[in-house]
Input
Amino acid sequence: MFNIQSYLNKRLGIIDDALNAFLPRLGEKPALLHKAMRYSVFTGGKRIRPILCLAACEAAGANYRKAIKPACAIELLHTYTLIHDDLPCMDDDDYRRGKPTSHKVFGEAIAVLTGDALQAEAFNLASKTMPPAPYSSTSIVSELASAAGSHGVVGGQIADILANGKKISKKEIEYIHLNKTASLFIAAIKMGAIAGGADKKNLRALSTYAVNIGMAFQITDDILDADEAKGQAMDETSCIGIYNRDEAFEICVSHIGKAKSAIASIHPRFTAPLMCIADKILRRKK
Output
């Protein structure tokens, strides 16, 4: 029987070791910036996006190490989005994963520049993986750019900001969740699949898996936030503002089912991690 927790623990260690090697060293000029970059990257994240990147590479039939750089790239990009999301002009959060946020430790200006530097480093890493034919040298970078831009995270964040104080529709919430959250899952999985040389059929299957996993992840986030809030008002962009908890959970179950069905045609030997991660999302905790 596949031991998903052992798999996740091992992959997390591999990702952390790689991130440590790729990031500028402490003390290297500009020392304060590099200290801030490392502070935000190493705050105890579960590394689900880079782990999915490695798992998608394996699902393509390749060794996961072919996707190490894209996996680290998606984690650096994700960290940049968190730093900027926590800023006073955005969500104004003082803590992230139980630790003071970047701007609380280093100041707002350094936090902004830290996010900028991590985003640049993400693209630097993504550009250093040459996928096999028929993919071009720019395929992986293109996926990262799509996830990062106006049709991805930034577009979702803009919609989130504009929703403040308004009652929004199911369609608008789905748009925000797809772009602000699911887009990075889509990029992570497609980058891993491309690095592993996935054929067109498997790339489509993995892409469908990615969309549904990303949406399910955000819905479980909303459910967990609602449980923690204990009846208090939720953010306008929480699906709990439209659905009750049971309805939201059923939608999540539906997404998980679609994700698993999408990759059912790929040999189970290659997809066991992805299948188990899908199931684990339903049981996840903060």
In short: The mean pLDDT is 94. DSSP finds twelve helices and two strands in the chain.
